[in-house]
Structures are given as structure tokens and as C-alpha cells.
Amino acid sequence: MSVHTDAVLLLGGDLPVRRLGLGTGGLVGAGYWGPRGSRSQARALLRTAVERGVTLIDTADNYGPALAEELVAEALHPYGEGLVVATKGGVVRTGPDRWHAAGRPEQLRAMCEASLRRLRLERIDLYQLHRFDPALPMAEQLGTLAELRAEGKIRHIGLNTVTADQLREALPLVPVASVQNPYNLLDRSSADLLALCGEHGIAFLPYYPLGSGALTRESAAALTAVAAEHGATTGQIALAWLLHHSPVLCPSPGTGSPAHLAENLDAATVRLTPRESALLDGLAGPRVSPG
């Protein structure tokens, strides 16, 4: 795979990652619960992704639960130089698509320690607070992550599913290396957050970069026309648009399919013209609800 130099971002200012990564939600079952396929298939897909040049693996402790982190370690440990493993804590999953926030200091600390053990790491490159716990002050939750960072267990702190106002409130409390919110061709609901990230050099890891499959089924004339011009799929064009749209966007689509993985990674080679980018900029639609 030919990867262009402008497809690299310094995560947290010091970790170079290729901007097209791999999410691990597609390696577990529906609703992020239980297995999807065999462990050997999942491990093979993870290894293939790294062989193809992926340097950012994005996982979470509640995918499975625990299963996705276990698979990452089984497939990739000992981790090669330059491979960045990001995970999340702060959510307890109790069933398919069933979860609750858990942001008390003892909960966050226990979840981080468990992720370190499962991932076989002494320090997690990027530890993301999966949700703010509404029952607790933001400062208390971020303070725990700051303590873990000072102890050398976390290198960088990220936030998942936040507003621009929440990010502004968080920035004086801790250095924020990344945020994760829905963002794709059809869902621009976090445009103000993306702009704020751009101002501060914060990586924006869009989840549902393909709109949970909606974009690969999108039949808009503009999208299909651009795809045809490049001999690409609509999904590849949707990912290429993200890479062109902002230098801080780092999509990490998840999949359990080797063919879909190859298709996604090949999107990094698509070079959109300014006219094509402008055409695709107009394809905003209704918000894609997070799951």
C-alpha cells in the first residue's frame, strides 16, 4: 500500500500514526457482545492490518467485554516499534448494546489496570475516557486519568463522545490528545468540535466513519460519480474524503472481513481533486445515532 506523507499525524504531539487505522469493534459480536467468528480469524485480520501499514489500533475494554483487547494482545504482542494501541475505559457493558458509565476513581483505576494486563503493556499509548459519568464532576474523572498518566500507566489521554463545550472545559484540566465522536459524509453534527480540535492540534478519531454501513449503501449521484471516476467503492471515497477534509481526522473503521479491510486500507491511496472534495462536502444528511 502506498501511504502518502500527509496521511500521518503526530498523536499527542509525539506519536506518529498513519491516519487510517483499525477499530476493533468489528471483531466482536453484535452490540459489542461476545465473539464474532473465530479467534484465529480475528488474530489473522489484526496481523494483516499491521502488515499493510496500520500503526493505530483502536480498541476498548468493554468490546466483548474484554475480548477485543485479548485478541489484540494475542495477535500483536510483542508490539512492533511504531505501533500505537489505544483503548478506552469508563463504561461497563452488561449485555448487547447495554452499558452504563462508571467514572468513580476506583472504577477508572481498576479498568485501566485490567486493560494493561490484557494488552500486556506497562503503559497505554492512548487511554480514552469512553463516556463522562454524569453523576460525577468532570474534574474528578479527569483527575484520575491525570494521576494514572503521572504514574506512567497512560501516555496520552483522550475523550469519547463529548461536546465542544466539554472539550473547552477539559483542556485546562488535562492535556487532551484525541477525541472520538461520530463524523462522516452524512453526519457533520460534530463540526464545531472538529474545528476546535483543528485549532488545538487534537486528533479527531471519528467513529462510524462509514455511518455503520450507511455510506457504503449511499446512492447519492455525487458520491457514486466520484467513486466511478476513481474506480473505487463509495466506502473508499467516504474514507478518502475524511482524510482530505481535515488533517486531524484519523478514521479507524472496524471490520471482521479481510476483503473489507483491504478495501478500507486502499482508500489511503485515493487522491481527491479540490472539485471532488467540494462536491462531497455538500453531502450532509441527518445525524447517524451512536450505538
Structural commentary:
It is a single chain. The protein is α/β, with parallel strands linked by helices and 291 residues long. The protein has helices at 39-51, 67-76, 105-119, 138-150, 164-170, 191-200, 221-230, 234-245, 258-266, 274-281, and strands at residues 8-11, 15-18, 22-23, 56-58, 84-89, 91-95, 98-101, 124-129, 154-160, 176-180, 203-204. Helix 6 (191-200) links the parallel strand 10 (176-180) and strand 11 (203-204). The chain is globular, with a radius of gyration of 18 Å.
In short:
The chain has 291 residues and is an alpha/beta fold. Helices cover 37% and strands 16% of the residues. The protein has 10 helices and 11 strands.
Total number of beta strands? 11
Strand content: 15-25%
What is the mean pLDDT? 93
What would the principal axes of the Cα set say about the shape? globular
Label the structural class.
alpha/beta
Low-confidence runs of at least 5 consecutive residues: 1-5, 286-291
Number of helices: 10
Q: How do the SSEs run, as a string of H and E?
A: EEEHEHEEEHEHEHEHEHHHH
The side-by-side strand order for the widest beta sheet comes to: 3-4-5-8-9-10-11
Helix content: 25-40%
Largest sheet: 7 strands, parallel
N→C terminal distance: 32 Å
- Rg calculated over all Cα atoms: 18 Å
